[in-house]
């Protein structure tokens, strides 16, 4: 029977420009020895990042996100604290996701979808 690894799911908000913070989060993950697996854009409302990194780098990534202007929710902070306190976490990497919601006054992005006959 195969054992599935859990994904660490984090959530946060920011008032930073969505284009710049997306690049900054990518750089932060790679800067701590991780890599971005994928990201999904939800209009100008949110972006979800899927990434992996060594578990001992999570606290450094957390600090970097704070420096970038990302405010993690209480549940995410509790999860990161619990992982950093586990000395038995000897995995080579940990899979994680970050759902980042953008706080701004811009109107929703609208895309015209062409009508398809039929």
Walkthrough of the structure:
The model has no long low-confidence stretch (mean pLDDT 89). Strand 2 and strand 3 form a beta hairpin. Helix content is 31%, strand content 30%. It is built from three helices and five strands, in the order E-H-E-E-H-E-H-E. Strands 2-3-5-1-4 form a five-stranded mixed sheet. The chain is α+β, with helices and mostly antiparallel strands and 118 residues long.
**Radius of gyration using CA atoms only:** 16 Å
Task: Report the end-to-end length measured between terminal Cα atoms.
Answer: 47 Å
Q: Helix/strand-derived class?
A: alpha+beta
Mean pLDDT: 89
Sheet with the most strands? 5 strands, mixed
Shape: globular
Give a count of the beta strands, DSSP E runs of length 2 or more: 5
Count of helical segments?
A: 3
How would you describe the oligomerization state of the chains in this entry?
Answer: single chain
Which regions are unreliable across 5 or more consecutive residues at pLDDT < 50?
Answer: none
**Element order, helices and strands?**
EHEEHEHE
Biggest sheet: strand arrangement: 2-3-5-1-4
User: Strand share of the residues?
Assistant: 25-35%
Helical fraction: 25-40%
């Amino acid at each position: 029977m195969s054992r599935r690894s859990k994904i660490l799911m984090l959530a946060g908000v920011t008032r930073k420009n969505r284009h710049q913070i997306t690049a900054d989060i990518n750089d932060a993950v790679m800067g701590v020895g991780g890599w971005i697996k994928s990201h999904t854009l939800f209009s100008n409302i949110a972006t979800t990042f899927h990434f992996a990194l060594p578990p001992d780098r999570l606290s450094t990534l957390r600090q970097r996100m704070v420096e970038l202007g990302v405010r993690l929710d209480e549940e995410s902070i509790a999860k990161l604290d619990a992982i950093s306190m586990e000395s038995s976490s000897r995995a080579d990497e940990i899979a994680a996701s970050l759902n980042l919601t953008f706080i701004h006054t811009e109107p929703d992005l609208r895309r015209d979808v062409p009508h398809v006959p039929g």
